[in-house]
Specification:
- With about 270 residues, this protein is mainly alpha-helical.
- Helices cover about 75% and strands about 0% of the residues.
- It is built from 14 helices and no strands.
- The two termini are about 40 Å apart.
């Protein structure tokens, strides 16, 4: 039985890895060879495609723009979602259930419905063509709050909190010293998901940013697609560069996801 399970796991791993591998392979072949058929081994035009890309597109400026925005979104989302989830899970707030229901209801509204109002709000605030509209909304991430609220409620025993209060710890000390370490696997999960979501965000940066120097990677890739309509090697090179941070962030944080929580331990 274990052999069958491992066999299917290997198949799933191959299916997940193959698209990334093909992107890397295609980034090393000339455009003519790419359209002529499927390539399974790397070619010799990697540097040629790279120099063709950077000649007409400031790929690394957009790369670091996306890195800055994504990291800022992850930090704000993880901290404030954990803080809000902790409050909903461990405090008996007057009207807390109503507030939490509002949080859940906000998850049911597609973001596309509010995009016009979001644009005019930033227009009146003078925030268009800045990174603030792309970063600040991550403070109120309803799905992250919902996820971490359930995790905190099921993971952190009230006995931990009561013992810390008896020892004289303040509420923020309890939150930072007890809550955050115990739910770190959940925070890592939210961090990965939000990094990928922020990195791949296309529509919001498209309507907010107009300065080419502030473009993010998805916007730049769409520009490259227009400029290099027949140069598929340059297009694949841009895509290859764009997936590198996602792979790195997953490799860095995935160990926190697979680590189990230490539940219990209360005498």
């Amino acid at each position: 039985m274990k052999i069958i399970i491992y066999f299917f796991l290997v198949i799933l791993a191959i299916i997940a890895i193959v698209p990334f591998y093909l992107v890397m392979v295609n980034a090393s072949w000339p455009s003519f060879d790419i359209v002529s058929g499927l390539k399974l081994v790397p070619g010799t035009s990697f540097l040629e495609n790279y120099f063709a890309l950077i000649e007409h597109a400031d790929i690394w400026r957009s790369f670091f723009n996306s890195v800055f925005i994504s990291i800022a979104c992850v930090i704000l989302t993880c901290y404030f979602a954990t803080l809000a989830g902790y409050g909903f899970a461990k405090y008996r707030l007057k009207g807390g259930k109503v507030l939490f229901s509002i949080v859940l209801a906000s998850m049911m509204l597609p973001s596309q419905l509010s995009i016009i109002g979001f644009y005019f709000l930033n227009l009146r605030l003078g925030l268009l063509n800045t990174f603030y509209p792309l970063i600040l909304p991550s403070i109120a991430n309803a799905s992250a709050v919902f996820f971490l609220q359930g995790m905190i409620k099921d993971t952190i025993s009230d006995s931990y909190i009561e013992a810390a209060r008896i020892e004289g710890a303040g509420e923020f000390r309890i939150f930072h010293s007890i809550a955050i370490p115990l739910v770190s696997p959940g925070i890592a999960t939210i961090g990965i998901l939000n990094f990928v979501n922020s990195w791949n965000s296309y529509m919001t940066p498209l309507i907010i940013l107009s300065d080419e120097k502030k473009f993010t990677m998805p916007i730049l890739i769409s520009v490259v697609k227009g400029v290099y309509l027949s140069n598929y090697g340059a297009m694949y090179m841009a895509i290859f560069i764009s997936v590198i941070p996602i792979i790195i962030i997953y490799c860095f944080l995935s160990r926190y996801i697979i680590n189990g929580l230490t539940i219990g331990g209360i005498k």
